[in-house]
Design a protein that fits this description.
two-stranded antiparallel sheet, alpha/beta
Length: about 475
C-alpha cells in the first residue's frame, strides 16, 4: 500500500481504479481491507447474507495479474456486494426467505452480469427482508440488519444490507433493487448514493422485466461511482424485451447547475416531515442556489391518491405470492409475513385499475406540465429516519405528534408509478440524533444525465465523504 494514506474502506471505486493502474494499490490489498471490515461488523451491523470470500480472494489475485500485464477490465478488482434478491448464475438468491434456501439460479440478471464481466469482484450477498417487502431489514433467514450510524435504527429496506455495508466501509460498490423505493429509502437512511434508473434503461431478468415498477441499480458512496456503474449496467439486451434500444453515456464530469430551474416539494402534499429532515433539505436547496440554480419550492395538492395507489399496485401483485408462501411454507416464514399478507389483501383489482387512470391524470395535469417548466424535482427521500431496526410494517411511529407507519416515511413510491423518470438519491446532511438525511432528485423521463448533474453539484457544495459512523 505504498503511498496510499486514505482509509481503504472508504476509498471510492474511481480512486481505487487509478491506484490499481499506477501500481500504488493492489486489488488484493483493497479486498483484504473490505473483508476485514466485513468480519468486524458482522455481529453488530449484520449486512451480509451468503459470503464468497475465498473465491473473491482468487478473483483479486487474477485482477492483480491483469494490472501487471497492462490489460485490466473496466472495474477490475473492485469489491461488489449484490443484494440477496438479484439472480447470479450458480448461486442462490433467497429473497430473505428460508423457503428459497435450496434454490440455485440458472441465469444472471443481465445488468449485473455486465458488472461481473467488467471485472467487479463479487464477494458476498447483501441482506434484505423477506420477499423484499419491508422498509426495515430483518428476517428469519438472516436476522436483523442494523444502521451503522445507530444500531437501534434500521438501515431501511429492502436494499438495507447494501446500504449498511457501504456506510460501514464494508464494500466499495453495491447493487440494490427498487419497486417502491428499495434503493432510495435505504440510501437516504444510511447516507449513501442510490440510483433508480428509468424503466428499460438497465435490463432485467425474465422474472422482473415486465413489471414497470421494478429496477435494479447502483448503490455507492459517491456520485461519480454511481455514474461508473450505471454506464456499465445500462443498454439494450436481447433477453429483455423492454430494455431500451438506445445506449447513453452519463458524463463523468457533468456541467455545473448554473441556470437550471429546479422545483422542490418538501412533503408532496402527503407526508409528515421531521423538522431535522426539513432543515437539512432546505440547506441543500440553498447550496444549489449558491451554485447558480434557480430553486423554487412548490405546493403539491395532487399526489396523495397516486402515492397510495402506487403502494397498492405492488401489494396487489404480491398478494398471491404471500398467499402461496403461507399455505405451503408457513413454518419457514418470518413473523411479519402474515401481516404483509393481510395488508396486501386490502389491495383490490379496482385499486390496480384506478392506479392506471390516476397516473394518466396526474401526469397530464401536473407532473408533465411541471417538467415543462423545471429541469428536475427534489424531495426528501425519507420523511422521518427514526425507524427502529426491528420494525414491522404496522408498527406505529410518532412524527410531530401524529402516528404513522414506516410505509409513510419513504417518499419514493410515486416515482415507481412514473418509472420512466430517473431518480438519484444523495446524502443531504445529518439529524441532531446522528442519522443521515437523503434527498431524491427526480428527472424528466429518460433524462438520466440531469439527475447526476444536480447530484454532483450537491456533493461538491455539501461534501459528505469525510463522515463516518462511529
Amino acid at each position: 500500500m505504498s503511498g496510499i494514506t486514505a482509509d481503504l474502506n472508504y476509498l471510492s471505486a474511481s480512486e481505487a481504479l487509478q491506484h490499481f493502474s499506477s501500481g500504488r494499490l493492489s486489488p488484493v490489498e483493497l479486498l483484504d481491507a473490505v473483508l476485514d471490515q466485513a468480519d468486524d461488523i458482522t455481529d453488530t451491523v449484520n449486512p451480509f447474507a451468503d459470503r464468497f470470500f475465498e473465491q473473491a480472494r482468487q478473483n483479486a489475485q487474477q485482477s492483480e495479474a491483469r494490472y501487471l500485464k497492462g490489460n485490466p477490465l473496466r472495474l477490475d478488482g473492485i469489491p461488489l456486494l449484490i443484494k440477496d434478491s438479484v439472480s447470479i448464475k450458480g448461486t442462490r438468491a433467497t429473497v430473505g426467505s428460508l423457503m428459497n434456501a435450496d434454490h440455485i439460479d440458472t441465469h444472471s440478471d443481465p445488468s449485473v452480469e455486465r458488472l461481473l464481466r467488467a471485472g467487479a469482484n463479487f464477494f458476498a450477498r447483501a441482506t434484505c427482508p423477506e420477499f423484499c417487502w419491508l422498509f426495515a431489514c430483518h428476517s428469519r433467514m438472516w436476522g436483523v440488519t442494523r444502521n451503522p450510524w445507530r444500531l437501534d435504527i434500521t438501515p431501511g429496506g429492502s436494499s438495507g444490507g447494501s446500504a449498511a455495508a457501504l456506510a460501514a466501509g464494508a464494500t466499495t460498490l453495491a447493487i440494490g433493487s427498487d419497486s417502491t423505493g428499495s434503493i432510495r429509502q435505504p440510501a437516504a437512511q444510511c447516507g449513501v448514493v442510490g440510483y433508480k434508473s428509468p424503466y428499460g434503461r438497465n435490463p432485467l431478468d425474465q422474472h422482473s422485466s415486465f413489471d414497470p415498477y421494478v429496477n435494479v441499480g447502483p448503490m455507492t458512496r459517491t456520485v461519480a461511482d454511481a455514474v461508473l456503474m450505471q454506464n456499465i449496467m445500462s443498454g439494450p439486451h436481447a433477453l429483455d424485451h423492454n430494455s431500451l434500444p438506445n445506449r447513453i453515456t452519463i458524463p463523468q464530469n457533468p456541467a455545473d447547475v448554473r441556470g437550471l430551474k429546479i422545483a422542490c416539494s418538501m412533503d408532496l402534499g402527503h407526508y409528515l416531515v421531521d423538522d431535522d429532515v426539513r432543515r437539512e433539505t432546505l440547506a441543500t436547496l440553498d447550496a444549489l442556489r449558491e451554485a447558480g440554480a434557480d430553486v423554487t419550492e412548490i405546493d403539491v395538492d395532487w399526489a396523495a391518491e397516486a402515492i397510495k395507489l402506487a403502494h397498492l399496485n405492488q401489494e396487489f401483485i404480491l398478494a398471491g405470492v404471500l398467499q402461496d408462501a403461507l399455505q405451503n411454507h408457513a413454518d419457514k416464514m418470518s413473523d411479519y409475513v402474515p401481516q404483509l399478507y393481510e395488508t396486501a389483501c386490502n389491495a383490490s383489482a379496482d385499486d390496480y385499475r384506478r392506479g392506471r387512470v390516476v397516473a394518466g391524470q396526474v401526469w397530464n395535469d401536473h407532473l408533465g406540465p411541471l417538467f415543462k417548466t423545471y429541469d428536475a424535482l427534489i424531495t426528501p427521500g425519507v420523511s422521518f429516519p427514526e425507524v427502529p431496526a426491528e420494525n414491522w410494517q404496522k408498527d406505529v411511529l410518532r412524527v410531530n405528534g401524529r402516528e404513522i407507519t414506516d410505509t409513510d416515511t419513504a417518499m419514493t413510491a410515486l416515482f415507481n408509478m412514473f418509472n420512466r423518470c430517473p431518480v438519484l438519491s444523495v446524502p443531504a446532511g445529518m439529524t441532531d440524533g446522528g442519522l443521515p438525511v437523503g434527498i431524491q432528485i427526480v428527472g424528466r423521463p429518460y433524462d438520466d444525465a440531469m439527475t447526476f448533474r444536480i447530484g454532483q453539484a450537491i456533493e461538491t457544495q455539501r461534501p459528505w465523504g469525510h463522515r463516518r459512523p462511529a
